[in-house]
Amino acid sequence: MISSLNQPVVNLNGSDVFRPLPSLPTSRRLSVLPPLPALSTRRCSTVFSLSKPLFVSKIESLEGTLKRSSSVVCEAYEADKSAQIEASEGRSETARKVKIGVYFAIWWSLNVIFNIYNKKVLNAYPFPWLTSTLSLAAGSLIMLISWALRIAETPNTDLDFWKALFPVAVAHTIGHVAATVSMSKVAVSFTHIIKSGEPAFSVLVSRFLLGETFPVPVYLSLLPIIGGCALAAVTELNFNMVGFMGAMISNLAFVFRNIFSKRGMKGKSVSGMNYYACLSIMSLLILTPFAIAVEGPQMWALGWEKAISQIGPQLIWWMAAQSVFYHLYNQVSYMSLDEISPLTFSIGNTMKRISVIVSSIIIFHTPVQPVNALGAAIAILGTFLYSQAKQ
What residues form DSSP beta bridges with 11? Predict the structure, then answer.
């Protein structure tokens, strides 16, 4: 602490600077501190006390004062820097939200286009096993070309990766074929209404096979899902048991696909786009021999002649479109999953089904009874409530 500071003050003008000071006693001279370092000219004052020298009781106090003074400047600088960082983070978060919104819009649009062309192909050329195979073949070819031309980064995989991917590919293949078989027998809207019951299968499989338990709201959310699907199925004008069972098997298969995927991909550093590409390639290898055994080239050739005579060459465009758009919408959905939480993905998947159901009803002029529409709405609402309760 600085003592004896109330002192007479004089201005530094003229010869006052050279006025001799009175001699000090020896004891006082010894207590005077060495001169402090010269301060910046901006900080120096032109007024000094010349009558008596200044005395400092503790040098630590002065050092503490100087340290506190310098820390204020540092904190002010850091505050400015943090403000810049916060502004930069705000811009990056906004860009991320825009990116997710674009992903969702592309995802839903591609899914709607795929379902429209897929139904057109199946109505004219009812061979779901071949149609499913062509979808996987188109996606595999697209990604192989992308890797060869370095348009997409080649995934770094090993034998363990493909071993872990195998059960995922088996479940994905079954789910894909079952859904295509369902769409070949019933309306697109009906297939997607039944497929909205997938959360019920997820809870039941996780509970009875994996021993997982869920909060009470999760179990309660299954009631509108199951009730809505049942109401929609009972009131469906064009009900078909094969189509209904295909959608149900697809639900069960995709639940196992998700379970195997979480286990197999734990710790793997493969992007969502490349992961789905590898999944398509392995599923294609699994599906091709079964498609040949179930339907076969002879049936495909006879069906092709009949379809071309009725539809014309545009059937080729329909088949190409449904194959390409199937891969693209799945690829974008996996890319979206890289950027968002599972809750957001579940909500997006629910909204996707709504867009597909509504668009297919409008395009194909599917007759819908009010009770049937009510059942679909209840099932979709239950799916939304499930996604909320699960998180």
Answer: 47
Q: State both tokens at 370.
A: 């009010």
pLDDT, residue 96, reads 74
* Whether 377 contacts 228, CB under 8 Å: yes
322 is written with which tokens?
Answer: 């449904």
Are β-strands 55-56 and 2-3 bridged in parallel, bridged antiparallel, or unpaired?
A: antiparallel
Residue found by looking up tokens 């690829």 in the block: 331
Query: pLDDT tens across 353-367, in order?
Result: 888 998 989 998 888
The model's pTM: 0.72
d(C-alpha 273, C-alpha 338), whole Å:
9
Residues written for the chain:
391
Q: At residue 48, what are phi and psi to the nearest 5 degrees?
A: -130, 155
The beta strand positions in 237-315, using DSSP E, are: none
Bridge-partner residues for 56, per DSSP? 2
In whole angstroms, what is the distance from residue 346 CA to residue 377 CA? 17
| DSSP E strand stretches across the chain | 2-3, 10-11, 47-48, 55-56
**Beta-bridge partners for 47:** 11
Please give the distance of CA 151 from its chain centroid, rounded to a whole number. 22
Q: Helix H segments across 149-240?
A: 159-185, 188-195, 198-208, 216-234
